[in-house]
Amino acid sequence: MAGWFRRLLHKPKPSSVVESSLNTSRSSSSSPSSSSSSSSAESFSPRLVSSVHPASDISSSSSARWAKSYDVCICHSEVDLELVEELVSYLEGQPESFRCFLQLRDAAPGSAMVTELCDAVQNSHCWVMLITPGFLRDPWCKYQMHQALAEAPMANGRTIPVLKDVDRKDYPRELRNLYYIYMALKEKSFRQIRDTVVRYLQELCRSRTE
Questions:
Q1: What is the DSSP secondary structure assignment for residue 12, as one 8-state letter?
Q2: 39: how many CB neighbours lie within 10 A of its CB?
Q3: Closest CA to 128 of 88, 171, 172, 185
């Protein structure tokens, strides 16, 4: 009888048992979330660094990008000027602030057309060939295309052919070893051109620093 009475006096209070279980559940529920947040932070940081790093390379003051006056030269027919002006406005408005050569805007007044076309090719990193029916009929467009190919016949990504309203069979033979962008949706094609230029400039900067 005395033993039973002592056990009754030493029995834990229900409130302390509940409090203990609540504390345990709180600690167990908070632990996974904290480890989850730390692991997500660890996995996020490398991706953030890798996405920002290339843009800072092409924009740095020591970048090989600045060795030439222009990032992009647009080779086009005069009948396609409105579309080209949209493309130039898009590229120059990008975070990289691409420097575009647009013949009717940037050519020096009074200078010879042949001289201007050759200088534009030599002073640009990339050349966008907007191949339309007007381009195929224009001898100056073909001249500039040949100048670009002579400047860098095997340079990957420097010559960017863009087809619009032209059948595959009419694609210039001189460019058939190069993949082209087919302009069906204008916005998508502009992005593809921008991405190709960025990729070339990134490779150029990396190769010069190695």
A1: P
A2: 10
A3: 88
State CA 183 to chain mean position distance. Answer: 18
SS3 9: helix
Lowest-confidence region among 4-13, 44-53, 87-96: 44-53
Token pair, residue 192, equals 């593809």
**Whole-structure pTM value:** 0.70
Q: How far apart, in Å, are the Cα atoms of 54 and each of 58, 150, 166?
A: 7, 29, 35
**pLDDT category of residue 62 using cuts at 50, 70 and 90:** confident
Helix (H, G, I), strand (E, B) or coil at 49: helix
Give the Cα separation of 171 and 57 in Å (integer): 35
Q: What is the distance of C-alpha 145 from the center of its chain?
A: 25
pLDDT at 210: 67
